Amino acid sequence: MASNNNESNNFSSNLKTLCSYYKSISDVCRKTNINRQQFNRYLNGNTFPSYSNLKTICDFFGVDQEEIIKDPIEFKKIISPVTESKKIDDIPEGIFAYIDILKNASKHGLDRYCGYYYRYILSGSFPGNIVKSLIKIYQKDGFFYYWHVENLTSKSPVIKKSSRFRYDGVVFMVSERIYMIELESKLKSTISETIMMPSYQHGNKNISGITCYSTSDISHQPVSSRVLHEYLGDKINIRQKLNECDLFPTDSSAISDDIKEAIFTPPLSPTDILLTN
Q: How far is residue 33's CA from residue 65's CA, in Å, rounded to a whole number?
């Protein structure tokens, strides 16, 4: 407990300073696992934290318990060499606030799209072929994520060596459109964005749209193509479904005509994709 009102007031002021280096008070509360209403009492100087919560707060911010009750001017001098430089390089708070808005807006609209999908898209690295891959959209801690795995095997004549690529991404819903942004997980050498149109047909959970990405070869050529996600269900045999993923010629009978129609881009030919030059 604080020994006097000055130390309690100092703590309140210094806690506000420390929180200013994070995207939001809610973010600090989540990471420290302290109730938001209780935390507000600390910020307002109405209550001084228990020994346990004081230790949690100090450990989280990396300061000593003796430091956090010092005069605010002196306290800022103590922390500024580290945190000021961090704040300059940090992501602007407005962006975090916007992400929170997107996150909250997506909570209910995306529920029905959780599950596994086959993803079909024209290949930018291997023109004249379709990439069939596996995606899972899932919810965790109130946010929607997805993983995406491409399984390219040497069964395809254009593939010299079998390879598997994993991508991890986030999902938002804005104005009845689904936005998916992913990063290649191992090399972190490519980011892609997909905009999907939800299907409102009864019993149809397939979703289609357009994706932009860069090719996996050395040129990393930016390309764009139509894409289809074919819904598989909430529970699947992942190994079996991955084994069905591969690279297929655009005239392959393994890909149905309905799927080809969904991803081919009229008036372009089935072998064409959009390029930047």
A: 19
Residue at 160: amino acid letter: K
Which pTM was predicted? 0.63
List the end-to-end C-alpha distance of the chain, in Å, as a whole number: 67
All structural domains of the chain: 5-90 (1.10.260.40), 111-275 (2.40.128)
Distance CA 65, CA 96 (A): 29
Task: Express each pLDDT in 182-209 by its tens digit.
Answer: 998 877 778 899 999 887 777 778 999 9
The conformation of residue 109, written as its DSSP 8-state character, comes to: T
Q: How far, in Å, CA of 146 to CA of 168, rounded?
A: 6
* Cis omega (within 30 of 0) for bond into 267: yes
Q: How confident is the model at residue 276 (pLDDT cuts 50, 70, 90)?
A: very low
The tokens for 119 are 């993803």
- Measured CA distances, 180 to 132, 157, 170, 177, 228 (Å): 17, 31, 6, 10, 13
What are the CA-CA distances from residue 72 to residues 2, 51, 64, 78 (Å)? 15, 21, 14, 10
pLDDT at position 273 is 65
Q: Give the integer Cα–Cα distance in Å for 178 and 195.
A: 6
CB atoms within 10 A of CB 147: 15
- For Cα atoms 147, 153, 156, give the angle at the middle one, nearest 5 degrees: 125
Tell me how far apart the alpha carbons of residues 183 and 119 are, in angstroms, rounded to a whole number: 16
Q: How far apart are CA 255 and CA 228, in angstroms?
A: 12
pLDDT confidence of residue 159: 83
Measured distance CA(16)–CA(25) in Å, rounded? 9
SS3 category, 130:
strand
